[in-house]
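[Automated response] Your request has been received and processed.

Submitted sequence:
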Amino acid sequence: MNIEIKFPLFVATKIRGYVNQINVTSQNIKKMRELFEEINDLITTNNTIHINLLILLLHYTL
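Generated structure:
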């Protein structure tokens, strides 16, 4: 089963903005930046994000 969540444009734009703001100063922050870049790549043109990606994000942030 494929569950998708539609993001409002401003949310997707915000996430893309975070990718540029994250400073790569330590290994953890570098990993976090890579994760956000992955998220950025997976946000499609119609601002759809897959539920697996949200689970991945939670896994890395908790």
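Summary generated for your ticket: The longest strand covers residues 4-6. Residues 39 and 60 are 12 Å apart (CA to CA).
If you did not submit this request, please reply to this message.
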